[in-house]
Predict the structure.
Amino acid sequence: MSVKIAVETTYSAEKQVSDTVTGATHSFLTILLPSVVNPRGRLERLKAIADTWGPSANAVFVVHADESIPSLLSWGNTNYYSSEEESSSNYNDKGPISYPALLRVPSDITVEHGVERLIHVMKTIVEAGPPDFIFFANDHTFVIPEHLCLFLQDLDPEDDIYRGHALGESNRLKYGFNSGASGYVLSKNTLRKLVAALDAKKPKCTSDGSGCLAGNPGILTAACLGDTLETPPIDTRNSDGEHLFHAFGLARVVSGQVDQWYINKHKNLYFLKNGDTIDDHLPHGEHCCGARSISFHYVEYSETRQLFAARNHVAEAASLGHPLSDKRIGRWLDDNWPEKKKLGFYAHGVPPSGTEERRQFISVLRKISNGRDKLPLQCRKLV
């Protein structure tokens, strides 16, 4: 397949990660696959992402051939990662295009072909000339670009890297897998090796047949990376034991009210140490989330807009030397946070006023919002 994309215009200098100590510069993309949850709300989610964090995260929306997304045109974006038979350009009449961009898959890959779609996307990126790092998530994921930028700063794109929120899967995978909901990072070196292994159909790198790998892109990817390429998921919690990648929304990870299957996946992590408890690897309350948290999941369009606005509201007041009190933040949440019916089935609302859960929610919101002035310059530019 010939991929029509000019690599030199794909990754703008403003959206690269600059290491102020070594001078290293890292480029990255955020690839957003279609979520299987609430497909009817997909267009609104894409629009919300485009209006909030999507441009700074270099978001690329993976879309199907028969998918009509007319509103994308209103964003002034004609950038397509595509095969040669489609007319595409990396430029519009104002010069190099901006993100979000589109990656449209061939017509023979439908929504039921999750494995084939992911493999096509990965091959397209490799053939186009991959950035240093690629963050794979879906359109229900909320991403904090400046924190993703910081996370990548000390990594080497030539190293074998598969980072996210590790989950155990002892019955099918030796090393488990990274949650696709919270998203995972691959280095360009790892992506190239993965695509080559999938092409060669190396052991654990093919979905042929009816086994556990068939039809499950996340399990196939993890099996190929961990068992064949010896690049398993690792513990990415910070030094305080707080997660950076979250498979549920902010309210649920703070309260700890997550699904039982998710709790179970933390019981058989291959890197568990003697004496570790479930609370160590799945903390809640104020220690649920690192200050530099990167992603949350099951975030519908209305929550995307308000979480983005809430972080800015809290951060801007703090940067001016007038940090908001819990009472003022609570009042803002009461006035602006979406009501339950707009949050989606898997999301929870802000805890009631006057409760300990409310205090913890506000504390974590403050923690993941503040400190922008301490980020490296290139990461601050993504705010």
